[in-house]
Amino acid sequence: MSKPVGLLWLPLIFTPVCVMLNSNFLLWITALAIRFTLIEGQAQYPVVTTNYGKIRGVRTPLPNEILGPVEQYLGVPYASPPTGERRFQPPEPPSSWTGIRNATQFAAVCPQYLDERSLLNDMLPVWFTANLDTVMTYVQDQNEDCLYLNIYVPTEDGANTKKSADDITSNDRGEDEDIHDQNSKKPVMVYIHGGSYMEGTGNIVDGSILASYGNVIVVTINYRLGVL
């Protein structure tokens, strides 16, 4: 497969995952995409309203002058904790909450065992195992209460969000045009990590650059692994 010119090419592994992504989960993703109306759009810690309550994210600048900042909403629950009587059961919708829930840090990852390096070398690609020490830092905090997702939302700032008037044939006013339409719905990309159903986490995949460059909402998720 040839690499697209001018784009950052990331070798991603998409493994079919039987995580029972039922209608509740899909509705949750859709609701997030539709209802992402900013209350404090220009603040460092923007607040958005979801079907289950308000969440507070963090506005993160990118180390590139042509990419606008990205709003990150980390550790957002998409299901009730699968613990106790819910263990081994299909996921249930999360409970609503009052006030504003902080979504500025990753939630715990699902229980997994990553100490056997030789096994990992056989199961995972070289580009993954070459940075295994970095990967390990993302899976230290483990808990059965792990059904959370991370959302990366592009903003309308940055030099790359403007098209020159010379490049716009339909612009009779001779003005630069913002390529991000604030009134349009953004596409949503959901990334499901690989790992042979035994290890991994969506936390390790930073969707900030993809979100900003492609003007797309990027969602990464954690799902139950192993016997769970």
From TrEMBL:
InterPro entries: AB_hydrolase_fold (IPR029058), CarbesteraseB (IPR002018), Carboxylesterase_B_CS (IPR019819), Neuroligin/BSAL (IPR051093)
Keyword Signal: yes
Family: Belongs to the type-B carboxylesterase/lipase family.
Transmembrane regions: none
Species for this entry: Python bivittatus (Burmese python)
Lineage of source species: Eukaryota, Metazoa, Chordata, Craniata, Vertebrata
Region named Disordered: 160-182
Every Carboxylesterase type B domain range: 45-228
Keyword Signal included in the entry's annotation: yes
SUPFAM superfamilies: alpha/beta-Hydrolases
Protein name: Neuroligin-4, X-linked-like
Compositionally biased intervals (Basic and acidic residues): 160-173
Keywords: Signal
